[in-house]
Amino acid sequence: MGKFPLGLSVRLSVFGALSCVFADAALAAIATQPRETPDGIFLTLDDDDLDALPKRAAQQNGFVRPLTYRALLLDDYLLHKALNSAPLEEPDHPMKSDHSDSIIWLPMPDGTDVPFSFVESPIMEPELADQYPEIRTYLGNALDGSNRYVRFDRTPQGFHALIRGGGDVYIGPGEKEGAYLSYRASDYPSDGNEFTCGVEDGSARAETISGAKISFGGMLRTFRLAVACTGEYANFHGATSDDDIVNVLAAITTMQNFVDAIFEGNLGVRFVLVGQVGQLIFTDPATDPFAGNLDTSVLIDESQAHIQATIGDANYDIGHTYATAPGGRAAVGVACNSNQKARGCSGSPSPTADPIFISVVCHELGHQLGATHTFNSTAGGCGNGSRNGPTAFERGSGSTIMSYFGSCGVDNLQGVIDNNNFHSASLEQISGFLTTNTCSANASSNNSPPTVSAGPDFTIPKGTPFTLTAQGSDPDGDLVSYAWEERDKGPKQALTDPDNGKSPLFRCFLPTINNERTFPELANIISGANTLEELLPSLSRTMKFVIVARDLTGGFATDETRLTVASAAGPFRVTFPNGAETFEGGVKRNIRWNVAGTDAAPIDAADVKILFSEDGGHSFPTILKSSTPNDGKQKVTIPDVETAGGRIKIEAIGNVFFDISDEDFTVGPGIFDIVGTWVVDSTLIYKFFADGSMDICVTYDPENCSSYPYEWIQTGPDSGELTTVYTGSGHLNVHIVNNDLLELSYPPAGPVFATLTRI
Question: 57 and 177: one domain?
Answer without folding.
Answer: yes
